[in-house]
Design goal:
Helix content is 20%, strand content 24%. The protein contains three helices and seven strands. The chain has helices at residues 37-45, 124-137, 155-165, and strands at residues 8-12, 18-23, 27-30, 33-36, 50-58, 61-68, 88-91. The longest helix is centred in the C-terminal third of the chain and has 14 residues, at 124-137. The radius of gyration is 19 Å and the shape is globular.
């Protein structure tokens, strides 16, 4: 039997089968692309004023959490491939820590749904889409300026939206 170093963490179970536990590194697969979250964190740390950064995937979007005295946005990440640019940026006063002093990724807050000035849907199609998105994402008052993906809409939920609208 051959075993390769892939970055995957596995173990043999009681039945003698190999069980996948997770990744040793922070590589993820998102929308068909393999993404090393450490690359995103590294680019953020190069920005003057950023002290700490952590990138994670939530609701099929990349969220970058950081501490520092600068407001980050996509313009700081033009050196990355488009599919690696975070969808949401959350500036924190301090990162949550484990008892060992490491960043506690599990206790990072849910990203806020960035919504520009609320503009109510006016035409029939806008009203249908906004009502369907509100139903799927369990949100209220979705306006025409909101980014559905930034609010956490996954590709599966987008398919449900498509079914609801047809």
């Amino acid at each position: 039997m051959k075993i390769y170093k892939t970055g995957d963490l596995c173990r043999w179970n009681a039945e003698g089968q190999l069980e996948y536990i997770g990744r040793i590194d922070n590589q993820v697969k998102l929308r068909g692309f393999r993404i090393e979250l450490g690359e995103i964190e590294s680019v953020a740390l190069q920005v003057e004023g950023v002290q700490q950064s952590v990138a994670i995937v939530r609701n099929e979007q990349i969220v970058l959490y950081y501490t520092g005295d600068v407001t980050l946005d996509a313009s700081y990440f033009v050196s990355l491939s488009e599919y690696m640019i975070p969808s949401a940026y959350m500036q924190l006063d301090a990162m949550p820590l484990t008892p060992n002093g490491k960043i506690d990724r599990r206790n990072l807050p849910e990203p806020e749904c960035p919504q520009k000035e609320y503009i109510a849907p006016k035409i029939r199609n806008e009203k249908l889409i906004c009502k369907a998105v509100e139903k799927i994402l369990c949100l209220e008052s979705i306006g025409t300026t909101v980014s559905f993906r930034a609010c956490g809409m996954s590709s599966i939920q987008a398919m449900k939206l498509n079914v609801l609208l047809h």
